[in-house]
Backbone:
């Protein structure tokens, strides 16, 4: 990387030096171009206009060099030198300004890499979960993800996602996912490392570790924000009489439901 920076800086310096050396021709080229435009647009035509422009440019350059090298008074030679130096300085400054603009567009406003494992996870007695979305990785405006690790026997609690379908990739271990659909329909699926899982939008599901080693998998969503709704928390925050009337569960069990979300629960 250091060598690349040195070579880039050297190339820019050499290019700027070459442009300044060539900039001394700014006055002859300018006068020659003016002669070409004047003659080419008149009766001489473009071919003779080009020839006249070349003659004028070369003549101005040679006369200027001869006058500067002559024994004319110093003030007069200085004035002649200024005639060449001013256009050269303007041209050279324009080149350097252009090079500085080409040097880069400035600092990158957003980082395009993120170390998910460096995040502090949400820790429970059954495992961990790391959530990455646009709130902590601003460049991730279309993808949100969670890295989940379940200890043997632990479970990713029953939940659903209100903002899109869920794709899963199983990194290690063995697990089982049960998905609940409408009309009392449910299916269970077994997974191992390398498998891909899918949960349709807003369908309830839970995942349990059925192996003897930690189960690790990714949850991914096409959304800038990660969002999930815990069934236990939802029931705990709903009027308990209403929950009991619809579920027929024991009131003591409903009253014992935690009001805080615990994404991973022990076995």
Residues:
């Amino acid at each position: 990387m250091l060598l690349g920076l040195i070579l880039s800086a050297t190339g820019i310096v050499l290019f700027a030096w070459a442009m300044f050396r060539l900039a001394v021709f700014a006055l002859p080229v300018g006068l020659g171009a003016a002669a070409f435009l004047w003659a080419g647009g008149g009766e001489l035509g473009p071919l003779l206009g080009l020839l006249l422009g070349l003659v004028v440019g070369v003549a101005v350059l040679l006369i200027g060099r001869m006058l500067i090298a002559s024994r004319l008074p110093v003030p007069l030679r200085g004035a002649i030198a200024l005639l060449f130096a001013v256009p050269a300085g303007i041209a050279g400054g324009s080149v350097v300004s252009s090079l500085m603009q080409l040097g880069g567009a400035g600092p990158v406003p957003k980082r395009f890499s993120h170390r998910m494992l460096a995040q502090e996870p949400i820790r429970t007695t059954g495992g961990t979960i790391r959530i990455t979305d646009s709130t902590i990785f601003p460049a991730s405006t279309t993808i949100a993800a969670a890295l989940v690790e379940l200890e043997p026997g632990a479970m990713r609690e029953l939940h659903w996602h209100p903002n899109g379908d869920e794709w899963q990739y199983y990194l290690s271990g063995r697990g089982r996912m049960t998905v609940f659909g409408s009309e009392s329909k449910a299916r269970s699926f077994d997974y191992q490392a390398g498998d891909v899982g899918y949960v349709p939008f807003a369908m309830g599901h839970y995942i349990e570790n059925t192996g003897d080693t930690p189960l690790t998998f990714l949850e991914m969503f096409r959304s800038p924000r990660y969002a999930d709704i815990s069934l236990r928390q939802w029931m705990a925050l709903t009027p308990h009489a209403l929950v009991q009337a619809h579920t027929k569960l024991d009131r003591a069990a409903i009253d014992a439901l935690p009001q805080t979300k615990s994404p991973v629960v022990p076995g």
